[in-house]
Fold this protein.
Amino acid sequence: MATYLLTYNPKIWFWKDISEAIRCAGSESFVTWDCGGTQKIRTGDRMFILQLGVEPRGIFGSGWAASDARPGENWRAGKSNIVFYVDVRFDTLLDPHAGGVLPREVLEQPQFAGMRWLPRRSGVAIPDGIAACLEVEWRRFLAARASDE
């Protein structure tokens, strides 16, 4: 199983129905997401989603690929290149617009060195060692949120 980083930039596209996706996290429903030019994503791969472009920047969701990456038309108007899409079944999805993110500053700690946390495209592979550290930090972040609520 590989781990991949998906990106969300509200400056480029605003996720209007994110509240519906948040309600469905942990269920059998899925969200189809652009994974850039990445063709290697397979069903069962681990997925994290990162908010870029506006503060707060950071990880706001995790899940599993519910499909292999598949080609499709570019969702961005005026772009003719083919992009790849993956269905993602989120186990956790927070509202980044309400500050629900594992902050980028955490991702800049030494255990995450070697990973570019401001990727230009979605679908970047996260090296195994960094992915293991991210899983630990993500669980810690979610536990802290739960104890605060």
